[in-house]
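chain below, 306 aa
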Amino acid sequence: MLQGEDSSAVPVAIDLQAEYRTSGVAEVLAELDRELVGLRPVKQRIRETSALLLVDRARRQLGLSSRTPTLHMSFTGNPGTGKTTVARRMADLLFRLGYVRKGHLVSVTRDDLVGQYIGHTAPKTKEVLKKAMGGVLFIDEAYYLYRPDNERDYGQEAIEILLQVMENQRDDLVVILAGYADRMERFYQSNPGFRSRIAHHIDFPDYTDDELLAIAQSMLDEQGYRFDEAGRATMREYVEKRRAQPHFANARSIRNAIDRARLRQANRLFEASSGPVGVEALSTITAPDIRASRVFAAVGTAGEPS
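prediction:
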């Protein structure tokens, strides 16, 4: 039975649109739209999943036979495409609909689950699962759990514990596995138990140049900054060049670029200042603040460009 249901009072009909509004699902989806630029196919899948859960809840409220849908998920895509943010909103959505007790998100990687010696992995994995119960467990770069080339690796032990919990306690925990699409596919081929337990596979596309520029603008807005006209044009040029360089991480790379531009702006203002500095100067990111990045250098350098 879902959280908060009263089996003594069975209605004869359910207004799904009213349920949509009063459940808070509309609020969660609106927040997702505000938080994330683009990602239309992802947002559409989340809306479809919301509809499935609303209908499932309505069937239960009407006393119809219904089995709780499998809610474990797989998020695939490159870094910085919003997977963690969507997982957080999914946890909120599942809580509002009564499919999890708490609605919190526990985000982990291999290091949080796998120990370094015999007898270390099981306690680590079980402790993480204990913290995640009643909510959503998000495992980023999940394919690192499986290292068949190392016979002394303990990742397989964590996998076996996860599979057991995903099957036996699926009414109290939702697991989301995330990572690069090609590596996740190989992971599922090597661990078919995961594939059979996951019903929702959602691919996160890379952002377009226009979307990345909009993300940069949004980040500045949140911090009380703005581009001047030349700064905005230079940021667009930065996006085009940065995308073609190594270690590009979509919104994450843009966030790093904005942080570095603010650093350069602060140094520029400090070094040039001989008197009071006004709001306009303190709030404006200019072309030189961006063009100083190594992205514009003729020869690339190792690591993420600054």
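The chain is about 55% helix and 10% strand. The chain has a mean pLDDT of 90.
thats it, cya
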